[in-house]
Amino acid sequence: MSEERLSPVADVQGPPEYDDWRELLEEGVLLGTECESCGWTTATPKRRCGECGNEQLEGIALPTTGDVYSETTINVTPAGFDDSYQIAIVDLDGTLLTAQIDGSVEIGDRVRFGDIVTPDGRPAPVFEPVE
Ligand SMILES: [Zn+2]
What we know:
The chain is built from two helices and eight strands, in the order H-H-E-E-E-E-E-E-E-E. It is mostly beta strands. The protein has two domains: 3-61, no CATH class; 65-129, CATH 2.40.50. The structure holds zinc ion. Residues 35, 37-38, 40, 49, 51-52, 54 line the site of zinc ion.
C-alpha cells in the first residue's frame, strides 16, 4: 500500500473506531479497514479481520468513486426520511459499501461519494451517479 493512499487517514492510530470513521466521513473521506496480515478490506470499522481473524487492522482511505454492485428502493422509510429512496451496495475497488443514492442508478453504473445524510444524528454516505 502506498503512503499516498494512507495520507488522509494517517492520524488514525491502530484499528479504526466508529468515531474515526464518522469524523472522516464528515470531512469527505471514506475510512476503510485493511488487515495487515492478509489484505482483506472492509468499508466500516471492525475489531477482527473477516477473512483470517487477525486483530492487526489499519485505516485506509477508500476510493470515492465505484460501481453499483446491487441496488434497491426503500419505499417504507424510517423516521427522518420523507420520501422513498434508493440504496446501493457500491464496489469501491473490491471493498463493498452500502450507501444511499441521490438520483437513480442501475447495477453497473458508476457513482461517486457526494454527500452525507444524518437522519438520526449519525452520518451515512450518499453517492450520486457519475454523469
Ligand atoms: Zn486478514
